[in-house]
Each structure stands twice: as C-alpha cells, then as structure tokens.
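Technical annex B. To support the medicinal chemistry partners, we prepared a structural model of the target in complex with magnesium ion, based solely on the information shown next.
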Amino acid sequence: MSQMKESSSIETAAGASPNRLGQRKTSLREPQDHKAESPAEPSEPMGHGEDALYVGIDLGTSRTSISASNGSRHTIFSCVGYCKDLIAEKRLGKQPLVGQEVLDNRLALDTVRPLKNGVIDTSEPRSMPAVQELLKHILSLCDPHPGKNIYAVIGAPARATVESQKAILQAVDPLVSSAMIVSEPFAVAYGLDVLAEALIVDIGAGTIDLCRMHGTMPDEADQVTLLTGGDAVDERLEQEILKRYPKAQVTRNMTRQIKEKYGFVSDPHQTCEITLTEKGRPKRVDVTDALRVACHSFVPPIVEAIYQLIGTFDPEFQARLRGNVILAGGGSRLSGLPLLVEKDLKELGGGSVIAVEEPTYAGSNGGLKLAMEMPARYWKALV
Ligand SMILES: Nc1ncnc2c1ncn2[C@@H]1O[C@H](COP(=O)(O)OP(=O)(O)OP(=O)(O)O)[C@@H](O)[C@H]1O
Ligand SMILES: [Mg+2]
C-alpha cells in the first residue's frame, strides 16, 4: 500500500528517552535527531504534497470514532463477534461482525471487547486480531483509495504504558502507512485549539483522562489517568437495581442504555420508572434512586483528580486553569455533570466548567488535526 512505514508515539515526558524496551520514542517538544535533520525538510506535514488520507482515531473501550481528511466520520461500538457455530455462520456469514451488529446478534456470537481500561487487553489472546478487525472496519467506512497512503493519529489514555502504546501500533501497522499515538485529552485540546491554560477531562467507559494544558506539550506531571469510567457506573447501576429489585432481569448492556437515557447528577424533576422483567413478566420499577447512587459514584474521583492537577500547578496560573475546565468523552453527556463539578470547584475559589459540543468526535477530530499538521520528523519509528 505504501512506501513509507513509520510509527511513533508522542512522549508526554520532557525530552526523548529510551523506554523500557530499549526503543526510543520521540517527543513533540523536540525530536531527538533534530540536529541530523536536513534543513530542506523543516516543518512540512507528513505526506506533504501527496494526495494522502489523514485520519484521527479515538480507539475507545466502549466506542471507536474516526475523523478523516476526506470529510467522513464514523463511530462504532468497540466489539467484534465471531459466529459460534455453522448455523450462525449460515445466517451471518463467515466474516467477524463489528459494532452494533454484534450487540444485535450477540446470542449467536462469541463477543470480544478487545479494549480494557482504554488499551488493548493483551491478557486475552483474541484481543489483537479483534482490534485489527475493528480498525480495518472503521477505516473501510472512510472509503480509502487503494493507492493512497493513510496517516493515522490514534488517541490512547494519558498515562498509557509504552507496552500498551506499542500494542496499538502493532495492531494498526498492517492497515496504514504511518501511525502516531497521542494522549487522548491532548488530542481533544489540540482539536479545540485550546493550547493555553485549560484542564481537559476525557470521561470514557474504561478510563477518565485528565490533562492540563499550559501552552506547550503537556508532560507526565500534567496528566492523570483514572482506571474508572462509564463501565463502572453501569456495573454499579446493575447492583443498585438488583439491591432494590432482586428478581429483576437486567444485563450490563441494559444498564448502560438506562444510564445514557435517564442518568443524572442533578436534582431530578421527576421519578424515572422503567419496565423490566421478572421471570419474563413485565414489571414497572422505579430506578431514580439507583441511578442517583450509581451516577454520583464516579464524580468524587474526577473532582479529586481536578484538585490534584490544579493544586500542583503554578499558583499564579491556577485561577486561569480553574476558569477553563472542559469535559469531553461520552461521560460528559451525563445530565448535570458540568454544573456539579463547577459547584465542587467553589472550594478552590470557583471556576468554569463546560462540556464539549461533540463528545463523540472531539478526540478523533483532534487526532485528524494533528495528523494533518505534525511535521514528518515527529513520526519517527517506535517499533
Ligand atoms: N448520555 C450519556 N450519559 C452518561 N453517560 C454516557 C452518555 N452517553 C454515553 N455515555 C457513556 O460514555 C462512555 C463512552 O464514552 P467514550 O466513547 O468517550 O468512551 P471510550 O472512548 O470508548 O472509553 P475510554 O476512553 O475509556 O477507552 C460509556 O460509558 C457510555 O455509556
Ligand atoms: Mg475515550
């Protein structure tokens, strides 16, 4: 497909350094081999002058989104399904299914959710082929031209390990000409053009990633990854419903849907009643209180992490940071969340909290912008 095969990771710590695998990563601050660089190739973007396809990919535990330079963008559930037997194959075909089709046919499929806590679950052998299916599928939705190079920037949790980043690069390697990994909240900030004092909180299904921006590349001290998120809320909601209605029949996918439709951390104006079944018989249940408990459960860790990043920032700039807190990721859709976090900031002297307009594509849009603007010299080989 291409002549060029490079992949790299933008390092979040200052400067470039050999990682635990003895490989070298490059940093956006300054590429390590910049001195050897020819003056003729200063800051031209990767693939400059080519008719290439650039993509930003937000590879998420729950959903994967892509934004492409040809204007297409798509989001799919991050799951892959393999037919359980010949009967299933007869109906669904031999190819693995991806995304919503997996949820719709899950009884006939072995389902793999290849990402855990925002990175490829390498403890499960089926994860690597599954994540390749996922990436292949979402790239194909963008109708790439067979002869064109594809340059991809992929978002990973802010504090993803080198091993995790390397696994993502290995998965995408056969599918693109060149790939680069960036911290997901940094991609969100870059996409929004928020590079001066701001605090991005990317609330995903498997992780919550925070990154404080201060006009340069963020380093490790600027970023926090919490190993919790929307999945933990879904689990808690299931427990809270079963505590109140022990015979209710409810799955994790159902609690996710209930949370996404009715979830809140504000004062509800009305009670939330839904129909579940008990041994197949429909029963109306009031889930208002269960929702309140489950949805509130993930707010304290978020607020604590915000306090940590503000509290350790240059005191002269803390007020600016407090005044520019931006919530992103699917979890930022939770009704009442920006107001509640803003209320909690009062203890630090107040602040302003907003949610991004397009949580689904904020990360992939930022990845696309990075892909189109990062000079070729930053896309150095990691593997
Ligand atoms: N309206 C909503 N209210 C509350 N939560 C929501 C809403 N819409 C989506 N979510 C939750 O957002 C999460 C998905 O967000 P997102 O797509 O940003 O995560 P991800 O990128 O897949 O996960 P990660 O970044 O952890 O790998 C899920 O837990 C989903 O249930
Ligand atoms: Mg995410």
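Notes passed to the chemistry partners:
The mean pLDDT is 87.
Residues 58, 60, 184, 202, 204, 329, 363 surround magnesium ion (ligand 2) (CB under 6 Å).
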